[in-house]
Amino acid sequence: MYSIFHPLDPNERLPRELILEGRRHRLMDIRHLEIAAALYLPALIAAIIGLGAIHLNPVIAFILAGLLLIGFFAYVVTFKND
């Protein structure tokens, strides 16, 4: 097998793409983005139904839904991984 593939060198540097990918994943943990994405849709539906049940103007309801999206996005961006 070593005649076809050379053994890996433990001192070889990572390619630039892998280094940049590692930095990107440290900036925003994908798990928290996935959690926020999974919770946003049920929260959006509940907010639209709840605001529609109290006969609020649909435009105002969707503005509040946009604010809900901004809140979820702020949660993801401001998360600190200790």
Record the SSE blueprint.
Blueprint: H1 16-27, H2 30-53, H3 58-78
Helix pairs in contact: 2-3
Overall morphology: rod-shaped
The overall strand count is 0
Number of helices: 3
* N→C terminal distance: 43 Å
Could you state the order of secondary-structure elements as H and E?
A: HHH
Overall average pLDDT: 76
Strand content: under 5%
Major sheet attributes: none
Helix percent band: 55-70%
**Structural class by sheet pairing and helices:** mainly alpha
Report low-confidence residues grouped into runs of 5 or more: none
Radius of gyration: 22 Å
Structure characterization notes:
With 82 residues, this protein is mainly α. The chain has a domain at 29-78. 70% of the residues lie in helices and 0% in strands. The protein has 3 helices and no strands. It has helices at 16-27, 30-53, 58-78. The radius of gyration is 22 Å and the shape is rod-shaped. The model has no long low-confidence stretch (mean pLDDT 76).
